[in-house]
Structures are given as structure tokens and as C-alpha cells.
Design brief:
This protein has 596 residues and is of the alpha/beta class. The protein contains 20 helices and 19 strands.
């Protein structure tokens, strides 16, 4: 073990401790790859060539490797960003790798960022550095951290990765005696002995990963492992949450830090959005606003807004969705990048959606959860009115929730849901404060739609439109088809699954925002405009409502099942991923979110 003055780096073998690794599609730069005398052969057969970095992941955590490679899941972290910065030099390439038959005649050489593959072994690798001397070559992998103080000089996953690179070189005809790892953090080089035991482990890991990919079965999560605590995919994998349903083990708060990006709403008609560097430029007739692209999680356009083509391209590259909505807030369309690569989620969704028994079971629990949450919301926020009416309504809602959980068919369930909604909205105005009840404009008798007949109904419609858009974005990001649901029937242009998932969150997110903006005076009677029988919000009132809705999403709550704190925005993602785990058979029941 000796120090070295070289400083190789690449995207193929980053060591992120117990965290996730960078996405090969993001970290590889084909334009800078070396032109080789020995090109990598194309993948053949049903299972594509396995990236050697994924073999490392498989030894480290089989579930992580499967999520990243087979299901295409990815989440950036501070570790992955640091790893990218540490590998700028190697990614630029350099040197030339001679053909195997001429390697012995070459003097000492070094080739950086070399992509090679072995169809026989079924693997492919971008090797950080290949050094040649005396007729042999040595693959050198780069890790961003410090050398670990273990007997073998490196952890097993990293040694397996180097061994796999050596196997590819040998399969190509090169002579390899040993491998090496360069630890950039401590600037140390560690020799990796390619003994029979390590070679056997490497071949076994390759075979196991390829078999798991061919079978399409997600490996079980690690149990109470410290590897999960810093893994950037913890919020996707949900290791402790799945273990909770399987073994009853209380989960740790493993969700990684929330994304700092927030939705950017643009509502002024005639606004033009362009891009300057890494900044979005929002221009109206009166002002120009600049917003860093990194601060935006989604761009939401209300009404006639123009968007330049370079701006669309930049948002697609950053995987930031664009939602087009009417001036009233109803979603017209949704632009995403290439879409989520995890087709297994959609396959499980389609299978369940065409199973009438599963659909009815899911719908029963869904409607029951909606009624229970409506009941709790009404009980908590009831301010004035007849106490006897309140108690009778709460009792009726409890009874209807129980009936919904045992409904015999969809028609019966729809009837129960309709009766519960009528009872709930009959007392909706009883949640308004004294100041709000002084305005006759806020008189509310019943729910009316298409069009909303009064200011309160206009607020409710906008709230439900925003909630639909939120769920549409979450479901698309997780990998679902938001247009195929289990309770709402598919119809052209109707995001049925988003409508399903929003049901139990109507009182929690949309109705609560309506009550808040009315009671706090954030939206006043002068914030509405009438056109025939329809009532809509004026721009300033719409902005105030959207701001209140986004604040509600940022509020932290305690998850009623897992017991840890998280924002409502993150909670929606957790619920969507739990739905994926339920449809995939990892958990037996989907835990609908119920407020206490």
C-alpha cells in the first residue's frame, strides 16, 4: 500500500459511504470518451449488459442496485454532487489504450475514462484509469473518500468492482495481475489482489444481479441497517416502512433532506418566460423577475403564457415538469422529460386496475378514509352553529365511513360518498369565523360545480384543481400512469388516479386552505368576479389562495402510521411510494392517510 501522485477520477466507481451513487446517464459524458482500438460490443439478449458500478451496488445492497439499474430510480444528494466534482479530470479522458496484441510492445502508458464491455460476462464498465507496464495492464478505480482501515485495504463492494473491471480486460485479451483503488480524500493508492476468492465473489454477484433483473423481483430491504441512514434513495426504497408492515419494527425517520425547489406559478396574461444561463427570466409589461432554475420544482402556467423553446429544453434536462392550466386553475396538460423508467410500477398498476375485486377493495378504504378525515376536520374546526346538528352530523359521518368500508358494489359506494358529502358541506359554513360571517358573499349552502355559483364554491373548485395538479405531478414523478385509477373511471383527459389519491386529502389540504383564507381575511369578497351564473377569483385573490395552499403543503405533520415528522409535500410522495409497494406485493394493505 503506497501513496501516489496521480489523481484519477471517473463516474463509474464513486464511493459514497452508505449513500446512493450517481446515475450513469447523468455522470457519463460520451462526447469526451476515448476512441478505442477495441470498441465495446453491443448488448444482446433480454438482459442488457450490467454496469460494473451496479455490481458494486449489488454487493453493497441488492435492493439499491435493483432500484437504480432495473427500475431506474434515482435521487441526488450532497455525496453524489461531491463525487461529480471530484471526477472532472478523469471524465475528460486522455491517453490511448492499445490493442491487446500490441500492449506488450508499448512502453508505459495510461488511458483514462475507457469504456469496455464483455458480452460473455454480461457486464460493461467505464474504467477510470488503465495503466500499462511490462505487458500487463492495471485497472485503477477512483473513490472520493478516504482509504478505509480494513485488512483487505478496501471494502468488499469496491474490491468486487475493480475485479469486474479486471475480468473485462482479461476477456478482451489483456494480461492483468492486480487492480488498484485511488482514494482522493486521503490521496492514497491501495493495491487490490485478484485472488480466486474475489474472482468467485465477483462472478457470483454478476450472475445474481442478472438473474434478479430477468426475474423482475425487487429484493427485500435491509433490516435496521446503518447503510440506510445516509442513502439518498431511502425515501424511494422505504426500507424501514416496508419492514414495519412485514415485521412490526418501528421505522426510523430515514427520509433524506427535502428538495429545496418549489413550484413556480405564473398567472399574468401575456407573460413571457425565457432562460438566461441557469436562471428563468419572467417578464411582464411592468417588471422582470429572475428565478434560479435550481429553486424550481415545477413550472405552473395559468392562462396565456409564452415559453421559449430553450427554456422548455432546459426544464426537460433538469426533469422539471411544466403544467399548463386554464386561468381558473384546471389542468390542461403536463410536460415532462422522457418519463419515469420504472415500468414495473405501471405494470402492477394496470394489473390491479383491471381486477374488479382489488379496485372495489381499494375504493372502499379510500372513501372510508375521505369520510373519516372530513369528520375529524369538521369536529376540529366547528365554530358556531347548532351543537345538536354538529353531533348528529359527526355521528352520521362515522356511520357512513363504516358502511363505506363494507359496501357491496361501486354503486352503493357512490351513494354513501354522496350522502357523506352532502352532510359535510351542509355544515361547512359553521367553520367560518365571526368576521367571515359578516360578509353575505361568503354565505354557503351546498357544493356546486361547473360552474361554481358563489365565492366559497369558487375557492373549493380552485383548491381541488390545485390538489389534482399536485397529485398528478407526484404520481408521474414516482412512475405511475396518473390517468388510470381504481375508483374514478378512465376518461379522455381525466387523471383518474390523481383524483383517487386526492380524495382523502380534500379536507386536509384543499378545504383547510379555503377555511384559512376566509377566516384570516387573505381573500376578501372583492376578490371575485361574476359572469352569468359563474363566480371566479380575480388574479390577486388567486395568488393569495395559491400562496396559502403552498404554505399548507410545507407544514410539518406527524405521520399517523410511522410516527416521524415530515412536510405534507413529502408525505404525498411517501403515500405514492407506499401505493407502489402495495401494488407490487411488498405490503398487504395500502395505508390510507388518516388524521387523528
Amino acid at each position: 500500500m503506497s501513496a501516489s501522485v496521480s489523481d484519477p477520477a471517473s463516474s463509474d466507481g464513486l464511493d459514497f459511504g452508505s449513500g446512493g451513487r450517481p446515475d450513469p446517464s447523468r455522470a457519463t459524458h460520451p462526447s469526451t470518451q476515448l476512441t478505442l482500438d477495441l470498441p465495446a460490443p453491443p448488448a444482446t439478449g433480454e438482459t442488457p449488459l450490467v454496469p460494473v458500478r451496479m455490481v458494486n451496488e449489488w454487493v453493497y445492497c441488492p435492493r439499491l442496485a435493483f432500484l437504480e439499474w432495473v427500475e431506474g430510480e434515482w435521487a441526488d444528494s450532497a455525496d453524489t454532487e461531491e463525487g461529480r466534482r471530484a471526477h472532472v479530470r478523469i471524465d475528460a479522458g486522455g491517453g490511448r489504450l492499445p490493442a491487446p496484441e500490441s500492449a506488450e510492445d508499448k512502453p508505459e502508458f495510461a488511458a483514462r475514462s475507457v469504456t469496455l464491455a464483455s458480452e460473455r460476462l454480461g457486464i460493461i464498465a467505464k474504467i477510470d484509469l488503465i495503466e500499462g507496464e511490462d505487458g500487463t495492464v492495471t485497472p485503477v478505480d477512483t473513490k472520493k473518500g478516504k482509504r478505509p482501515h480494513v485488512a483487505e485495504g478496501a471494502y468488499e463492494p469496491e474490491r468486487v468492482q475493480v475485479c469486474a473491471q479486471a475480468l473485462i480486460l482479461e476477456d478482451a485479451g489483456y494480461k492483468v495481475n492486480e487492480g488498484a483503488i485511488w482514494y482522493a480524500g486521503s490521496r492514497e493508492r491501495v493495491r487490490i489482489a485478484l485472488d480466486d476468492e474475489l474472482r468467485a465473489k465477483t462472478r457470483a454477484a454478476i450472475s445474481e444481479l442478472r438473474l434478479a433483473a430477468a426475474a423482475g423481483r425487487l429484493p427485500p430491504p435491509l433490516i435496521d441497517s446503518q447503510k440506510c441512514t445516509r442513502c439518498s434513495l431511502a425515501g424511494i426504497c422505504l426500507p424501514d416502512e416496508v419492514a414495519f408492515f412485514r415485521r412490526g419494527i418501528a421505522p426510523r425517520p430515514l427520509n433524506p433532506a427535502a428538495d429545496t425547489g418549489l413550484p413556480l406559478y405564473v398567472q399574468e396574461p401575456g407573460t413571457r418566460i425565457s432562460k438566461s444561463g441557469e436562471v428563468l427570466v419572467v417578464e411582464t409589461e411592468e417588471q422582470k423577475t429572475e428565478v434560479p432554475i435550481g429553486d424550481v420544482s415545477e413550472l405552473v402556467l395559468h392562462g396565456p403564457i409564452s415559453l421559449t423553446t430553450p427554456t422548455v429544453a432546459a426544464l426537460l434536462r433538469e426533469e422539471i415538469p411544466i403544467t399548463y392550466a386554464s386561468s381558473g386553475g384546471w389542468v390542461l396538460g403536463h410536460t415532462v422529460s422522457t418519463g419515469h423508467k420504472n415500468v414495473s410500477i405501471r405494470i402492477a398498476q394496470y394489473r390491479a386496475a383491471f381486477d374488479e375485486r382489488r379496485c372495489l377493495a381499494f375504493a372502499r378504504d379510500l372513501v372510508a378514509a375521505k369520510i373519516k378525515n372530513s369528520r375529524v376536520f369538521l369536529r376540529r374546526n366547528f365554530k358556531t352553529g347548532n351543537a345538536a346538528d354538529r353531533d348528529a352530523t359527526l355521528e352520521a359521518l362515522a356511520r357512513l365511513a363504516d358502511r363505506a368500508a363494507h359496501a357491496g358494489n361501486e354503486a352503493e359506494l357512490l351513494g354513501i360518498e354522496g350522502e357523506a358529502a352532502a352532510r359535510y358541506f351542509r355544515l361547512f359554513a359553521a367553520m367560518f369565523g365571526e368576521a367571515a360571517r359578516d360578509f353575505p358573499e361568503f354565505v354557503f349552502d351546498k357544493r356546486t360545480r361547473r360552474p361554481p355559483a358563489d365565492p366559497v364554491n369558487a375557492l373549493l373548485s380552485l383548491g381541488y384543481a390545485l390538489l389534482t395538479r399536485t397529485w398528478l405531478t407526484v404520481l408521474s414523478a414516482v412512475g405511475f400512469d396518473p390517468y388510470l385509477g381504481f375508483y374514478h373511471k378512465p376518461r379522455f383527459g381525466r387523471p383518474a388516479l390523481a383524483l383517487d389519491m386526492m380524495e382523502s386529502f380534500r379536507p386536509i389540504l384543499a378545504d383547510s386552505t379555503v377555511i384559512q383564507v376566509i377566516n384570516n381575511g387573505e381573500v376578501k369578497p372583492d376578490g371575485f368576479v361574476s359572469a352569468g351564473p359563474a363566480v371566479n377569483l380575480k388574479p390577486h385573490a388567486r395568488r393569495a389562495f395559491i400562496a396559502a395552499y403552498e404554505r399548507r403543503l410545507d407544514q410539518e405533520v406527524t405521520h399517523p402510521v410511522f410516527g416521524y415528522r415530515l412536510s405534507m409535500r413529502r408525505l404525498l410522495e411517501v403515500q405514492a411510494r407506499l401505493l407502489a409497494r402495495y401494488l407490487g406485493g411488498e405490503i398487504d394493505e395500502y395505508p390510507h392517510y388518516l388524521v387523528r
